[in-house]
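Throughout this chapter, every protein is written as a compact record of paired, labelled lines. The reader may check this reading against the record printed directly beneath this paragraph:
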Amino acid sequence: MYKDFYGLRANPFNVNPDPRYLFLTRHTEEALACLTYGIQSRKGFVLLTGEVGTGKTTLINKLLEWLRLQQVATAFIFNSRLNTPQFLDYMMADFGIPCDSKAKSQILLRLYNWLLDRYRAGETAVLIVDEAQNLSDEVLEEIRMLTNLETFTEKLLQIVLVGQPELEQKLKQPQLRQLRQRLTLRAKTHPLTLDETKAYVQQRLRIAGSNGHEIFDPESLVAIHRYANGIPRVINLLCEHCLVSAFVDQQKVIAPPVVDGVARDFDLGDGTAAGVMTPPPPAPGVEKFDLVEALRSLATIADRLRDEEKDLPKEGKL
């Protein structure tokens, strides 16, 4: 309803992961280059991780757009709440590989022959799994086994695992060490800096048809970055509702009080909705408490106590 009022052709802050709106920061360019290099070089396994709302799915959609232009066969699994048979069935269907049998051996044989045919034709296939932090250990192990589909020199199937930082922690489990060892490339998405936030908002407005007239006051952009902690999804949320609120009041330029009001409505004052806890400032005259350093010190003390306990005679231990 506000598009005509602000001279826009489209909604600039839609939360859908539209690849047209991909904002290329240095980190994003590095991540995209890592993904494309891993696929083109047939590295087998590539990992993409990042905090919630930092643009992983938008980046993956851009990658899928490029792969389809290159006529690369792709399977994109976005629902990771699947057991092993469901996972294999979904993958085969998305690749467009017909298989009448539900037997796992027949599915894998059909997949292997299909991949070999593509390899002989100089082509490859890419499996992308989003929200991979939710995959069970059994499905992750099945994915690892898929990398055994190979020739003497190259992997036949390229796999991209995408997930939140919890995925990295999950892969550190001893039972998944074989999978972890096969990850040849790792990429990450990051929150935006203040300058990147300003450029991000301006780019989305430009793509949506803005003629360059100021819509957000410069101080409003500073406030948006502060409330969103640089998380693109939260930036979109704030900007969208700021446009609606300012339109209702017929304000052509969005001032900081509008941002403050929207942030209050979404409980963003302390940064918790952006996934980041903002620590309170230290009291005047009191030395700042470094929690990370304190935890490290506690860990060091605990390690030292364990070492000393090992050196005690058996009867001397507690």
In short: Residues 291-311 form the longest helix (21 residues). Confidence is low (pLDDT under 50) at residues 272-295, 314-318. The CA atoms of residues 2 and 247 lie 6 Å apart.
